What does this fold into?
Amino acid sequence: MKLFDTMNQHGHERVAFHVDPVTGLRAIIALHSTVLGNALGGTRRWAYTDESEAIRDVLRLSEGMTYKSAAADLPMGGAKSVIMIEKGKVPTEAEARAMGRFVNTFNGQYIAAEDVGVNTQYCDWMAQESNHVMGGITVSHGGDPSPFTSQGCFNAMKACLAHTGRKVDFSGLKIAVQGLGATGYELAKRCRAHGATVVGTDINPAAIERAVKELGVEALKPGQDIFAQECDILAPCALGAVLNNSTIKHLRCAIICGTANNQLHEPNIDGASLKQRGILYGPDFIVNAGGVIRLAGLYLGMTEAALDKKIEQIEHTTLAVLKEGKNDASEYVAAVNYAKRRIEAGRAKGAATKHPAMV
Ligand code: NAD
It folds into this structure.
């Protein structure tokens, strides 16, 4: 990959690499945009196959955060970090503290939080070294944002149902969930509580067992493919790039609305393929904004009532974007345009404040 060319093409402001020889930490922070403000984005701890995969992931995730925060009308930019680990490497306080020191070099332009592989304890360990961490319980604050992400996604499902002319009623619906971890479990819980049947899968047998036992989720049988399940709503709640040229042709759902980031492998191509197939796509960074709203809102000093209202608002934002998407190549394109309009408005406002003589 030509890193500078890619940064230029996608508008990344800064990418930093860090190695801590004592703990073996290998981490990357990508700051995509600070046009609207400092940038909050999770830290992902993952066994990548190689460096290129980690770089691609952090670049895509950080760009997505810019659009997510802008579309949620937060005065925040977009950034993300990834930690490359060997498969099975257990997280330690020393590693997290080394990551916290790395986060601190951004002087608050980047605020870290949890993502896949990082929990509240890890956030608190990072926060021992930096004030620019959210999502912990004892040292930083905000706690686990997953239930708020899932609530926002559930609200977005209502918008998707309304947009397709269906009754906004979950009883009798069949919902297929890929990934029954923090957000997938909480989403399945809300769907079940509102009367839906949920079929689910996970690569972790314990996660399936918990969802079956506690929520009455139906586990996929061996050999069955979640992407080929006939259902009303498919909810990707694991990793990204799951909607691609091999999965899209097998889909048998009316709506896609899940918590995972970067669900489309090739956003423009795969977004358009879904539209051609008549499948409504709830754009990921619109529907999964509940977590960033929660943590960024707390960081910005918003009240609990204001935060709840903003998470409720995801339903209206989703509906507005889906309406716009009727005339676009895909709902994804509509969502990016929606976010970019807010960024450009913020840029113009910032430019007017900073350089009144030049505008
Ligand atoms: P998690 O690690 O708690 O859960 C992910 C689950 O997916 C795990 O149980 C894992 O075993 C499973 N999984 C991984 N690969 C799979 C596969 N191929 N098939 C089936 N299951 C698989 O993570 P999470 O916090 O629930 O996040 C899930 C997704 O949502 C990620 O893409 C994350 O970036 C995104 N997201 C999370 C939040 C949040 O608040 N946690 C906010 C926004 C977006």
